[in-house]
Write a structure and sequence with these properties.
This protein is of the alpha/beta class. It has seven helices and five strands. Helix content is 58%, strand content 11%. A five-stranded parallel sheet has the order 3-2-1-4-5, sandwiched between helices. Helix 7 links the parallel strand 4 and strand 5. Helix 1 runs parallel beside helix 3. It is globular.
Length: 131
């Protein structure tokens, strides 16, 4: 059975933007994990879509994410208190805490190029994909 990977915005943005410094790295990560299911927090997906929206390319970005099979993780009703706890314990920004919570909630690995987020995910017992 394929595993689950929660994608951080850094990975998705780099993959969608051929001029991003991490584009090749992101694409290689996604190709290597192609047999796995990709998920993302709703906030991460919104972060990814800001740039394309500004450029008038929202539909293209949404289509690219759909082609990858990225699905949003519906956060549980207790998400506000869990996010507050993660924010307090890790010192991470709330968007990063959303990635952690999504990973914990669905039992997924976390794919990120953010060193602090990757370290926090490891401390939370989550597997980290960064290559």
């Amino acid at each position: 059975m394929a595993g689950l990977i929660v994608l951080d915005a850094t990975v998705m943005i780099a993959h969608l933007d051929a001029t991003d410094a991490h584009h090749d790295r992101a694409s290689a990560l996604l190709v290597a994990a192609a047999s796995e299911a990709f998920m993302a927090s709703p906030l991460s997906l919104a972060e990814v879509l800001v740039g394309p929206t500004r450029a008038g390319r929202l539909a293209d970005a949404v289509a690219a994410l759909e082609e990858l099979g990225v699905r949003a993780v519906s956060l549980d009703d207790d998400a506000p208190s869990r996010l507050a706890t993660l924010r307090s314990e890790t010192g991470l920004r709330l968007p990063d805490c959303c990635v952690l919570l999504a990973g914990e909630q669905v039992g997924a690995a976390v794919a990120t190029f953010d060193e602090r987020l990757g370290s926090a995910a490891s401390r939370q017992g989550l597997s980290v994909r960064d290559r």
